[in-house]
């Protein structure tokens, strides 16, 4: 079976704006720390792979990207995602997952019927929610909890009662 994560990218930050006049940018971190981003010498910024130096600061992190040498170039990156290839991330323990691994998985009811697919993963503080696009095109959020939605061999098995 092919690796469902192959070719996927994972967003670890977004460019919040320019920092200074020499091309540095401020980052809004999605990763747990600036150090987890700094371990990658090359990052994909706005879809372009660039050499990168990331350092923590009082508000999160700043970065300098290859080819970005002034404030105008840095400001042009505002809003751009800072990503890495999924394969560049550390391996996971059993039961762990990256959100990017869940997006695109087919969802099945407990009786085996196809229900839809995962189009997004949200977390508003109380745990992960799967946004499922049902086969009729409507979307619903469902808690990613044991017995409600389970990850089973690269697919989601869920209780359709939770799809409103």
Please describe what this structure looks like.
The protein folds into two domains: 9-88, RimM (Elongation Factor Tu (Ef-tu), domain 3, Beta Barrel); 99-162, PRC-barrel domain (SH3 type barrels). The chain has 164 residues and is mostly beta strands. It contains three helices and twelve strands; from the N terminus they run ββαβββαβαββββββ. A six-stranded antiparallel β-barrel has the order 1-2-5-4-3-6. It has helices at residues 34-38, 71-76, 99-102, and strands at residues 9-19, 24-29, 42-45, 48-57, 60-65, 81-85, 106-109, 114-123, 128-134, 139-143, 149-151, 156-158. The model has no long low-confidence stretch (mean pLDDT 88).
Summarize, please:
The protein has three helices and twelve strands, in the order E-E-H-E-E-E-H-E-H-E-E-E-E-E-E.
Alpha plus pi helix count? 3
Identify low-pLDDT runs. none
Q: What string gives the helices and strands in order?
A: EEHEEEHEHEEEEEE
Please give the order of strands in the largest beta sheet.
1-2-5-4-3-6
Q: What count of domains describes the coordinates?
A: 2
Mean pLDDT: 88
